[in-house]
Amino acid sequence: MxxxxxxxVFSFLLIAIGxxxxxxxxxxxxxxxxxxxxxxxxxxxxxxxxxFCFLRSESEELxxxxxxxxxxxxxxxxxxLVDKITELKDYKIGMHLIxxxxxxxYNIYDFEEDGADTIVxxxxxxxxxxxxxxxxxxxxxxxxxxxKKLESNSRIRIMFSDPTSSIVERIAMEDGxxxxxxxxxxxxxxxVCKRLDALLLKSATLPNKADIRIRTFDHIPYYAYHRVxxxxxxxxxxxxxxxGHQPAYEIVDQNEVNIFDQYFNIIFEKGNQLLECQGSTGKxxxxxxxxxxxxxxxxxxxxxxxxxxxxxxxxxxx
Length: 318
Description:
- The chain is an alpha+beta fold.
- It folds into two domains: 2-89, no CATH class; 95-312, Endonuclease Chain A (Endonuclease, Chain A).
- Helices cover 55% and strands 16% of the residues.
- The chain contains ten helices and nine strands.
- It has a nine-stranded mixed β-sheet with strand order 1-7-6-5-2-3-4-8-9, with helices on both faces.
- A hairpin with a 2-residue loop joins strand 5 and strand 6.
- Helix 1 runs parallel beside helix 3 and helix 6 crosses helix 7.
- It is elongated.
């Protein structure tokens, strides 16, 4: 009798421990613990069923009462597990593929939407494709869209490869493209910055929260990172894969978004200033010396007429 009671008590204890482990695992996204806890719960129930269905030697009344209590406990546990699993179903983790060819799906980078308070654009020549697609698909320019976002109080951070850096040649080699093509992309990107500066100089003032900072860097980036508020898109640069034919993923776990943001901020702080404008202070700064160095360098890699056309944006008609 005592050994049977001990087994029954142990079975209920096993179920209780299983519930605690499963709940802890679900709350902390430790799915191994969820499986262990579920196994303990199942083991406990099987042990109770064995005692009362296969080793039924105690009084019928006692057994029926215990079985009734076990069923009630089982239903309660099942309801709680269903609730937890329902919560887990809505929890997003990791990255989701949203485009096999990120440059053919411009809408995934749409930062024109209302409420885009924070915009981060990070990549090797991050603005050239945005400008190209805006002109072709919406009859707009990247600088005009960025300026409009500043008028809406947006905070914008942009960073791309320094065209004068020796890494450009290596990037082109890794991407399976020509260095001339990459220099053209960078010339278009520089052109957007120069034309945006012209728009900022013409404007009287910007709203108090408006803030844009554009910098260049001489590190090799292995992914492009675009974020609008909490929606973050990442595209990895795959070696020997053309820049225009690489997949894009949405980072759906906010903790992972924070990790990429931290990395971006570290690189950004080390970058070379090209353009800055803050509505709160009225500061408008364009690094003319850095721009001149970039322009002159590009003219050694491409024909001057081509560089001028790319920077003015005349190569793409709206």
